[in-house]
Amino acid sequence: MPRRERREQLLESALGVFVAQGYHAAAMDDIAERAGVSKPVLYQHFPGKLDLYLALLEVAADDVIANCRDALASTQDNRLRVEAAMGVFYSYVADAAGAFRLVFESDLTSEPAVRAQVDRVTSECADLIAAVIHDDTDLPHAESRLLAVSLVGMAQVSARFWLAEHGDTEGGIDLEVASALVSGLAWRGIRGYPLHD
């Protein structure tokens, strides 16, 4: 198997193990077995468990940020932008692979390199949203960024709560309904800041 394809296979296998067991309980043996490779093959690509976890976390963080960027660029209608950005977080936590657990529920946030990746999601998504707020309202950067961080926090926390309370339950709130409810709340707040000429 070509090196790049092997790396992707190992990352996919590692995701399943880390999501199911958490960082501390996961073993390289489990990951190698799940991938159908020997441990030496695994170590050829990743020198240690932390390196593997960080590589996986970086991919997961990049996905959220790229999806947020795409959502904001998908329309010039700010109400639709709020809906699209909120939808990014709800769809992300609903994904069966469970990569969101690495980003939003990591059991290794005391490790500085992990904390940096986790914080990067909030920071870079907030920067993207803050730029839109600033351009539309002419609020100072610091104020635009505070509003943007608040919106990202609302999206992250409410999406994780929705999954825990309603995601897999019969009679629970549907994904689209939940995302629409919270984006409606966010839009009612953010539209109060008037557009500048």
List keywords for this structure.
2 domains; Arc Repressor Mutant, subunit A; mainly alpha; Tetracycline Repressor, domain 2; elongated; 197 residues
Question: Mind explaining what this structure looks like?
Answer:
- With about 200 residues, the chain is an all-alpha fold.
- The protein folds into 2 domains: about 1-45, Arc Repressor Mutant, subunit A (Orthogonal Bundle), CATH 1.10.10.60; about 60-190, Tetracycline Repressor, domain 2.
- About 80% of the residues lie in helices and about 0% in strands.
- The protein is built from 9 helices and no strands.
Helical proportion, percent range: over 70%
Ends: how far apart? 57 Å
What's the overall geometry? elongated
User: Within the CATH hierarchy, at the fold level, what is the topology of the largest domain?
Assistant: Tetracycline Repressor, domain 2
What number of domains? 2
Low-confidence stretches: none
Classified in CATH, the superfamily of the largest domain is Tetracycline Repressor, domain 2
Helix and strand element order: HHHHHHHHH
The tally of beta strands, per DSSP, is 0
Task: Please write out the topology.
Layout: H1 3-25, H2 28-35, H3 39-45, H4 49-73, H5 78-94, H6 100-104, H7 112-137, H8 141-167, H9 175-190
Helix pairs in contact: 1-2, 1-4, 4-5, 4-7, 5-8, 5-9, 7-8, 8-9
Short synopsis of the structure:
It contains 9 helices and no strands. It has 197 residues and is mostly helical.
